[in-house]
Amino acid sequence: MIFSPVAVLLLAASAVQASVLTLQSPKFVVTDALGSQLRAEPFSLVHRTGTPVKLEAKDTLKITFQVVDKEDGKGVQPHQTFIRFFDPSTGEEGIQPIRVTGGGKAKFELNPSKPPLYLPPTSTEPLKVSLIIGTPNYDPITVRLFDLILPASQPAPTHPDEASFHVRPELHHTFRPDQKLPPKAVSLFFAGLTFAPWVVLIGLWSQVTPRLTHLFSPSILPFILSLVAFESLLLTYWVKLRLGEVLLYGAGLGLVTIFTGRQALSSISSLRKD
Amino acid sequence: MAQTKQGPASTGSTALGSLWKAYSEQTPDRLKFIDAFLFFLMLSGVIQFAYCVLVTTYPYNAFLSGFASTVGQFVLAASLRSQVNPQNKDEFKEVSPERAFADFALGSIVLHFFVYNFLG
């Protein structure tokens, strides 16, 4: 058989008359705060209302229609009836389900002073309002009705963590400027001044030199030499050695100095006691 | 008749003059040797500090190590002098002059080591 059972069912379904819904007496009314009508027009499923509907802060928009079967004009209560407010520039939409009575009568009111929560924040473009009706056994309806201009809303509150998801501004650190050396002349002058006490010292010492009778005797000289060696070790450390090395050499030299020192100083003390 | 005032330069007639006279006559040469060293250290420290106050503290660690070396060496030399002075023998019964000198040498070497470390 060419025709499979599914195709048979489909053919049978399409043979059933596809019913069409339509709206009876659809109209919208814009009234201001005092109740006087600003704009009252019917709207149609077939052609879109040309001029956008403008709502001020205190106005009210009221939409009424009745859903009927096109063939026999009887009221139908569809399963789903929505009015959709869509903002094309931001891509946000708000959906309002409409309560339809058993006879198909529907009524919807929009007051910007008490805005419903689904309305997106306003942008520069008007909202596109469309009607969506769906129910079994009938063709669905998705029709743009008119454009709606609402009063400007406050900007949407930003999440406290919003800033951390964008690139932060670049940090510019300011550092204290480098410290400068004083001019060379000043430095040289004070360097000379700092060495001046040496001259004073040499002068004073030349007057009071104690007698160095025992300096070069064999018991004292090694001690003096090891002291000199220690000082030269420290000078070399300043110039090129590292800490571990100087400690190592210093330990060895210290051992030597201990022995020479004991020898030297004991000989001096024995001399003193004589 | 106006009495001519005698300035401190005239020896022996003012307190400072007699102090200086007593010092130069009665102090042994060795102690004067150490005193000269002490005076030199004091001058050196004062000049370094004056430079730091007047001009700049820029290599601050250099100033600190230089100043600390003069101060530390002054302390060591002063303690050596007081321990070696024969007139203080009763104060320092258990410290012989040789021991004092050994202490001085050891302390000086350790001080120099730390100063060189910090000098940079």
Automatic annotation (TrEMBL), chain A:
The lineage of its organism: Eukaryota, Fungi, Dikarya, Basidiomycota, Agaricomycotina. Keywords: Endoplasmic reticulum, Membrane, Signal, Transmembrane, Transmembrane helix. It is a multi-pass membrane protein. It comes from Ephemerocybe angulata. GO terms for biological process: protein N-linked glycosylation. This is Ribophorin II. It comes from the Eukaryota. Belongs to the SWP1 family. GO terms for cellular component: oligosaccharyltransferase complex. It is found in: Endoplasmic reticulum membrane.
Automatic annotation (TrEMBL), chain B:
It is found in: Endoplasmic reticulum membrane. Pathway: Protein modification; protein glycosylation. It is a multi-pass membrane protein. Pfam families: DAD (PF02109). Keywords: Endoplasmic reticulum, Membrane, Transmembrane, Transmembrane helix. One of its GO terms (cellular component) is oligosaccharyltransferase complex. Belongs to the DAD/OST2 family. PANTHER family: DOLICHYL-DIPHOSPHOOLIGOSACCHARIDE--PROTEIN GLYCOSYLTRANSFERASE SUBUNIT DAD1 (PTHR10705). Component of the oligosaccharyltransferase (OST) complex. Subunit of the oligosaccharyl transferase (OST) complex that catalyzes the initial transfer of a defined glycan (Glc(3)Man(9)GlcNAc(2) in eukaryotes) from the lipid carrier dolichol-pyrophosphate to an asparagine residue within an Asn-X-Ser/Thr consensus motif in nascent polypeptide chains, the first step in protein N-glycosylation. N-glycosylation occurs cotranslationally and the complex associates with the Sec61 complex at the channel-forming translocon complex that mediates protein translocation across the endoplasmic reticulum (ER). All subunits are required for a maximal enzyme activity. This is Dolichyl-diphosphooligosaccharide--protein glycosyltransferase subunit OST2. The lineage of its organism: Eukaryota, Fungi, Dikarya, Basidiomycota, Agaricomycotina.
